[in-house]
Amino acid sequence: MKAYNRPFEVTGVQVNVIDKHSQLDQLVCHPVVQENTDAERSIKEYSVQKYKQIESHRESVKKSSIQKYNENKMHKSKVIDYNTEKYKNDDSFASSIKLRNTETRQDAQIKRKEIDCVIEQFKDKISTGPEYVCSVCHRCCFKMQVKHCKISKYLQKSQHAGCVSDKCITVDYLHMCNDNCSKDCVYKNTPAECLWICHTCDRKISEGKMPAESVANNLALDPIPVELSCLNSLEEHLIAKHIPFMKMLALPRGGQNGVHGPVTCVPSNVTDVVNVLPRSENYDLMIRVKLKRKLTYKGHYEYKFVHTDHVKTALEYLKENNKWYEDVEFNETWINPLSKTEEQVNDKSDNNEHNIENEDEEITEDTLHDRQQHGLFMDSCLQPVDIAQEVLDQHFDGIMSLAPAEGNNPVRMSMDESNEAKCFPVLFPKGSGTFHDPRPEKLTLSRYLNNRILNADGRFAQNLDYIFYGQYLSELNQVISNVSIALRKGHDTSNKTKITAEMLTNKESLQKILNFDQGYKFLKPVRGSPVFWQSVQKDLFAMVRQLGIPTWFCSFSSADLRWPELRQTIVKQEGCETPIDELDWSDRCGMLKRHSKRFKF
Questions:
Q1: Among candidates 89, 81, 194, which has minimal Cα distance to 133?
Q2: Of 16, 71, 106, 564, whose CB has the highest number of CB atoms within 10 Å?
Q3: Residues pairing with 188 in the sheet
């Protein structure tokens, strides 16, 4: 019997018979399909008509579509792929997109002339702060400074670029919600759920080069242990091998600080500090300590309560893990004077009364001698901050004065390669990762400090001593590098003579350098110097020549404590759940001080 491959009709239903030995694979009912198609078309037309006529329905559909596009990653990728493919294949769709983009740009140019539109754009740009962490250099960046990090893109460029990306790109700051996260996770629908990369690192990796600011370029940070994280600022200075002295000033508003004069780093006798601090069986023992530059000075650099056990525990950790603290020794045979009986103290009290007058005379003579040697008594940042507290402290005997750097000469900050790790052992627990450490890619000092202060870890941006230390070191490095340039420009090269140290001692050769107007221009990068203000004056004259004489001048400064978007961004980075309006003035100033270096006002 032959197989029937032709169709036949039974009561209006078309059936395909394939073979008598085969089963019925397909049964297509065309009238039913036609009815379903008509129903779908009518529903679609009704939805389109409803979307056009009812505004509330249109807004709800837009809102739900945007929410689904933002939350559903699979739906988002499908929409992007569909539009990309349609843009390539459909010429009419591509031309409509181009026309729409042209109209949008023209409308934007017109709206830029309206102040309301400009203000709206400004508020939109500042709605998000530096919340985007680069996966390569770990810097906190703004939205315009980063892009989505796609590792497959580098693999497609070249094999070498792919190897560099595998080495440099990290996921340390990528948050993926799991079972341990709460229902209302603070990182949900935030930039922390995506992998970002800044434009500088993206360009370098695309070229097959390791970015100089990459964490893989020996810039990785060691976690701060509990032994060091519990220390206050005075305890950090007591355990430091070098103490950075600087004169800090309180600015008039906002609770911010400034620095006046140079930063001086002086070696500290850490072993003497450990042996001097009293010990007791009570773990919670805290004593009042004044850190001074010299014991004979009445003023102090810092005055706080010190937990003696914390200092010892921190030094024990540094001795085991930090290469610069291997020579620290502890005196285990130290006798605690607090355990003396009252009888012994009373026996010696009578003898001490006879020696008080002689001791006062000796201290007065030493103070006068020190004043004659230094010219100005207490001529630095060692002035007491609170005069009233200083007067009250004169009536208490339980205050210990320490001067661990007394008698030591300051170090040369630009020459001592270990100075950074010795000044800030809490920031560098193992003594590695500093600027002078060897690296595969060369890194300038300015880029290094930029990477440290903007680091997402936050330890450097929240340390005022490190910020002012880095500022002074950067200015010092600029001055030193510009000195040689100014000397070469000011030297007469027609005689083909080399520059020697003898020429600087010769009055005639030095006068020639000054005549070339280059003898003092190395101070140009230092803010506040005469050469700096001279360049500002020239810029102002150029502005007047180009734009005309101004009617009036107006200078603006950011109202940081009255800027709601800025405060909201800082609260978000702090992870604080308390509403910003409920925080008092001191809390607001403290939060702003900890995050001010990450913002560009």
A1: 194
A2: 16
A3: none
